Amino acid sequence: MPAPLVVDTPSGPVGDEAPPAGRRRPARRWVALAAVAALLVVAGAVFALTRGPDVPPLTQADVQEQVQQGIADAQEEARKAPTDAAKAYQTALPSLVTITTTGVGEDDKQNGTGAGVVVSAEGTILTALHVVDGADTIRVRFADGTQTTAQIEEQEATSDTAVLTPGRLPEVVVPAVLGGGAQVGDEVFPLGHPLGLTQSLSGGVVSALDRSISVPSGQTLKGLIQFDAAVNPGNSGGPLLNRDGQVVGIVTGLANPSQQNFFVGIGFAVPIATAGGVAGSPPQ
Hints:
CATH class of one domain: Mainly Beta
CATH superfamily of one domain: Trypsin-like serine proteases
Pfam families: Trypsin_2
Largest sheet: 6 strands, antiparallel, barrel
Distance between the termini: 107 Å
Protein name: Serine protease
Low-confidence stretches: 1-26, 36-49
Radius of gyration: 41 Å
Shape: elongated
Keywords: Hydrolase, Membrane, Protease, Transmembrane, Transmembrane helix
CATH topology of one domain: Thrombin, subunit H
Order of helices and strands: HHHEEEHEEEEEEEEEEH
Number of helices: 5
CATH architecture of one domain: Beta Barrel
Helix content: 10-25%
Strand order of the largest sheet: 1-2-3-6-5-4
C-alpha cells in the first residue's frame, strides 16, 4: 500500500512576509482581493445611484403651501360633485309618472294634468286624489314613454290620496324609495309637471310640520308638510323628495289666499307615512 503523500510545511514566521524567491503567491489570495475590489466598486455604484439631491429643510412656508394646495384640490373636487338637487332628480326621475284626465271639473268636459310616482314593483302609482277624482278617463305616461290607462284602486279623501293601477306596465318598473319623516329646515325638492312643463324640479326647505288647510271640496287636510319650493298646477300628486331622492311626501296643494291659480311661495304635501299607508306601504 503506498504511503500517504506528505507535504513539508515551511518553517519560520507566516503572514505577509514575501515568499522565497522563485515561489508564486497563492492564487486564492488574488481571488479574495479581486472579490473585495469588486464589492467596493458595486457599493460605490449603488451609493451613486441611490443618493438623491440635497433636500433643504422643511420650512413653515412649505407647510403652508401644501395645506393651501390640499384645500384647493378639495374645493375643486367639491365643485365637480353633483349637487343634492341633481342627485335627487336623477334618483327619482325614473319613477315619475305623468297623469292626464278627461271629464273633470264642474262641467265634466275639462282635461287635467298632474303627477304621480311609482311606489311598488307591481307598478302601483301614488298621486293626489283631486288629480283624478271624478275623471271619466285616466291615462298615465311612465318615464320611459310607456302610456296606458289606469284605474283608481284605493282612495282616501281625508288625506287627498289616491292609488292607481295601470293597465300595462313598462318593460322595466322603477319604484321610488320611500323616505322617513321630514324635519323643519330639511332640503326638499318637489318633482312634477307644473303648468305642463314636464319633469320639472324645484327646491326649498321644510318650513313647518303638522299644518292644516281647507280645500275646495270642503275637506280640511291635516298633518301636512309646509315647504317653500315652487309648486303650480301640474305638481299635484308628484313626489316631494329629500336630498337622497327619497319620497317624503305627496304634493297636494299651495297656499292660495288671493285665489290666484299660481305659485305664491307656500306649498303643502301629505307625509309619505300617511300617503303610503293608503297604498299599503309599511309605516316609515
